[in-house]
Backbone:
């Protein structure tokens, strides 16, 4: 089996404006952010929408199971799942400098019994049969310093993500970039998950579009989603009712 080439690693840079700290990979493109006075809140709108997987899982399952993040960014999703949701968390990041900066400047806690941060290639982690069926929530946000298109965006990778998910799990993917094709990426995800398992949210102002893919979850109607959205917003202060207005089932 042909292995993917390992991309060159860009230097990590940090900027700060109006109380928000930003992580960059040597360019102006924002790879993550943290409000300094609220280090465990989700600052960026698209990162908040990456958590819309919560709408598609039963309320009793929201704080249970294993959350996996492929592409650490500024660590916001992993920090939220670890501290607020109290889930077991694994983050996979290829660039060791990103991990170091997240620990020193973005309040990513040290590994503990519920947190593991791995310096590893995301594709290899997802493809490893040791991890098959281990992720209940899988957040995929993989971009290089140019942010032109996802670094991993082929059928083989999405098939590995499907393998990584537990039955009843949900994957959220950030699709963004100057050279990215939303429809092409959706078809690649659908090739493994099936179009009936896919949901999408409207693009953010910056152009980030989040796609959700479920594994082994029954269909859910709007009334159930509305109840879940109210619960999520009340318990976790996330704009879940707003998500409900912009989410669309691609299988319908």
Residues:
């Amino acid at each position: 089996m042909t292995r993917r080439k390992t991309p060159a690693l860009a230097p990590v840079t940090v900027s700060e404006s109006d109380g928000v700290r930003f992580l960059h990979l040597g360019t102006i493109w924002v790879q993550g952010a943290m409000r300094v006075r609220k280090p465990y809140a989700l600052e960026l709108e698209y990162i908040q929408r990456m958590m819309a997987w919560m709408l598609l899982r039963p309320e009793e399952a929201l704080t249970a199971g294993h959350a996996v993040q492929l592409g650490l960014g500024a660590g916001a999703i992993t920090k939220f799942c670890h501290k607020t949701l109290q889930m077991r968390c694994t983050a996979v990041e290829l660039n060791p400098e990103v991990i170091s900066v997240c620990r020193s400047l973005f309040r990513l806690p040290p590994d503990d019994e519920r947190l593991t941060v791995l310096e590893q290639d995301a594709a290899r982690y997802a493809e490893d049969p040791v991890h098959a069926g281990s992720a209940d929530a899988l957040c995929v946000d993989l971009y290089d310093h140019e942010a032109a298109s996802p670094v991993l965006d082929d059928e083989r990778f999405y098939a590995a993500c499907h393998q990584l998910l537990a039955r009843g799990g949900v994957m959220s993917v950030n699709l963004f970039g100057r050279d990215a094709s939303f429809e092409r990426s959706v078809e690649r995800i659908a090739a493994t998950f099936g179009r009936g398992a896919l949901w999408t949210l409207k693009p953010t102002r910056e152009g980030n579009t989040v796609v959700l893919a479920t594994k082994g979850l029954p269909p859910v109607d709007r009334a159930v989603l509305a109840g879940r959205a109210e619960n999520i917003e009340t318990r976790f202060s996330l704009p879940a009712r707003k998500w409900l207005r912009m989410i669309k089932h691609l299988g319908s």
Q: What stands out?
A: Residues 13-249 form a domain with the Rossmann fold fold (CATH 3.40.50.150).
